[in-house]
Specification:
Elements (H helix, E strand, L loop, with lengths): L3 E2 L9 H12 L16 H18 L5 E6 L2 H13 L5 E6 L2 H10 L4 E7 L21 E4 L1 E2 L4 E2 L10 E4 L16 E5 L10 E6 L16 H6 L9 H17 L1 H21 L3 E3 L10 E6 L5 H10 L2 E2 L10 E4 L6 H18 L1
Parallel strand pairs: 1-13, 3-4, 3-5, 5-8, 8-9
Antiparallel strand pairs: 2-10, 6-7, 9-10, 11-12, 12-14
């Protein structure tokens, strides 16, 4: 049975990655042991970390001034870890508030220093990406969230920053071409586009570090993990391996192809939403996310019936986030265009029945 997986995360993975990961659980590298059993200090796992690190830098086109870390705790831990490492109590960081996760990052930063909210779309229920605001050049850093999974907005052009640039790319990293070198620190939970849950990728310039006066707990200090090559404590071995396999797949596809397919998927679904009298979008068209397509029905009472109809026809994960309701189709890298076409067909069929 073909299941069309629109879950927002943990999300769909490429079929070859699932197959290779399953084999590694049974036996890894001819060792007679499962990947789940091997030492994280072994040369076999060190090779996994080394390859994953190299793939991140190669795909992102970054030089050796950047370090790549594989950490735990999700983006939510990075909300606090970034200001703990970068922001002194007397200093100010700038944040753009575009949704739930951006707001949470901003809240955590307030525990470590001053926070200046440079722009927000919260009064309009986060239905657009703010533009045209000024970024003061005396800030310690500037932070944005590139894609907003709950509300379905995404940056399609990044503002220029005169200060160190921090970005949460959890839900759209490696989904399109980008000048990654414009950012000084990138973090992303892997479970949407580049792996399975349990690992967070952090890419940062080492030159950012060592400039705050506070004592940083050892596990929360980026320098600890740089020094130990992400192996200071037992890492999420399986999740890092799945991330390595997914990065291999991304490299094989190439970001040009991935971006083209992702654009096609988004355009197909948004065109269906705009042309179908039963459905409508929820955010500004120019800021619509390619990754998380949020929509509702003109008659909200029909939404449970449509979701049940879609589920009965093998579409899973379409319910909107509990805080906003409606529908949300997540179109991450590994989701095929055929799955989006299947959903569009169901939308048309449902409209014909109700017409």
């Amino acid at each position: 049975m073909k299941v069309h997986n629109f879950n927002a995360g943990p999300a769909i993975l490429p079929a070859p990655v699932i197959s290779q990961a399953a084999q590694a659980v049974t036996e890894f590298n001819g060792l007679g042991m499962s990947l789940l059993e091997i030492s994280h200090r072994s040369k076999d796992f060190q090779a996994v970390v080394d390859e994953a690190t190299a793939l991140v830098k190669e795909i992102a086109g970054l030089d050796d001034s950047y370090k790549v870390l594989f950490l735990q705790g999700g983006a939510s831990t990075q909300f606090g870890m970034v200001p703990m490492n970068l922001l002194d109590a007397s200093e100010t960081a700038g944040y753009c508030n575009t949704g739930t996760w951006a707001k949470k990052a901003q809240k955590e930063a307030k525990q470590f220093g001053n926070v200046l909210e440079l722009a927000t779309s919260e009064p309009d229920n986060f239905t657009f990406i703010p533009k045209g605001y000024q970024i003061p050049d005396n800030l310690k850093y500037f932070h944005i969230t590139s894609n907003n999974t709950i509300y379905g907005t995404q940056y399609h052009a990044y503002p220029k920053s005169p200060v160190p640039y921090i970005i949460d790319m959890s839900s759209d990293i490696f989904s399109r071409n980008c000048d990654f070198s414009q950012f000084d620190l990138i973090y992303a939970g892997a479970q949407k586009n580049i792996g399975s849950s349990g690992v967070t990728v952090v890419i940062l310039k080492e030159s950012l570090l060592g400039k705050v006066n506070r004592t940083i707990p050892t596990m929360m200090d980026y320098r600890t993990h740089i020094k130990e090559n992400s192996l200071f404590n037992t890492p999420p071995v399986f999740s890092i391996y799945v991330t390595m396999l997914t990065l291999r797949w991304i490299k094989e596809q190439g970001l040009n192809i991935i971006e083209s397919v992702n654009r096609s998927k988004a355009e197909l679904l948004y065109n269906a939403i705009d042309s179908n009298p039963l459905f409508k979008g929820t955010v500004a068209k120019e800021d619509r996310s390619w990754m998380n397509v949020n929509f509702i029905m003109e008659n909200r009472d029909l939404e449970p019936e449509f979701l049940a109809f879609a589920k009965a026809n093998n579409c899973v994960g379409l319910a909107g986030h509990r805080s906003v309701g409606g529908m949300r189709a997540s179109l991450y890298n590994a989701l095929g265009l055929d799955s989006v076409q299947h959903l569009v067909n169901l939308m048309n069929e449902f409209a014909a029945k109700k017409g």
